[in-house]
Design a protein that fits this description.
CATH architecture of the largest domain: 3-Layer(aba) Sandwich
Mean pLDDT: 90
Strand content: 5-15%
Shape: elongated
Low-confidence stretches: none
Number of domains: 2
Order of helices and strands: EHEHEHEHEHHH
Number of helices: 7
Helix content: 55-70%
CATH superfamily of the largest domain: Response regulator
Amino acid sequence: MARRALIIGGPRNSKKLVDILSKEGYDVESTADCVRAVDLARMFTPDVVLMDVNLPCDDPLSVAPRIIAERPVPIVMHSSHSEIDQVLRADEMGVSAHLFRPITRENLLGAIELGMSRFRQCQLLRAEVTDCKEALRIRKLVERAKGILMKRNSLTEEEAFLKLQRLSRDSNMKMEKVAESIITANEIM
């Protein structure tokens, strides 16, 4: 299946991008309308978004976070060398890669691959952070439940943990749910 690219920018630069990407087998959509760009990104579901930093709207860089909020996708910005402050701002807003003009086939394809690679890395890191936060949340629940069991039943930490494990196994519930139940019961008492 062909990769899909959404190009957001003025007609002159967009035409060159469309020509290059179409020859590379991309299915391409383009718009110069900042408002339509977000809707188009949602409906077209591109694999990559190429965006001109000089869009004809009040705050062109505000389009990138709106697209990413709707559906995370790698975004490659392009601009002239004189717009370095815009490049840095775009990076803070989640843009995956940047391409400076003049745009060549090799530079464009390289920036797309770099952007897609960086995007995948960021997605993996986000997932890992989410997993770590969840594991920490569960650990805190288990520690709190252990503390309650230790205090109420005069148990050692190891005995309280073994009791939690046994309750989890006997009730066929995850330890997290057993811990939540112990905490809730303690709060009621």
